[in-house]
Amino acid sequence: xxxxxxxxxxxxxxxxxxxxxxxxxxxxxxxxxxxxxxxxxxxxxxxxxxxxxxxxxxxxxxxxxxxxxxxxxxxxxxxxxxxxxxxxxxxxxxxxxxxxxxxxxxxxxxxxx
Length: 113
Prior knowledge:
Low-confidence stretches: 108-113
Shape: elongated
Number of strands: 0
Mean pLDDT: 76
Structural class: mainly alpha
């Protein structure tokens, strides 16, 4: 891509960020509902059973934090690429490659199923 011919606009990046934020807020809301369900189930068990429900809540929380961090890095990379006016493809690639999407999938909340 030659300098000054980006095919994405600042407006489209802002719209994408808003959509990502809205969807992530929806995910967080669903996770809260799931955690409330796990809390109610955990209350019916003692010892190992209760501990298993608690461990899943911890996994969910950690996964949600990792996903949020990935989204932040992704949005930062999008904004960085928008600021590279006379940059090269290598600069854009380097900006995007800093995003580690594997960090969000390290441990699934459903890993024991």
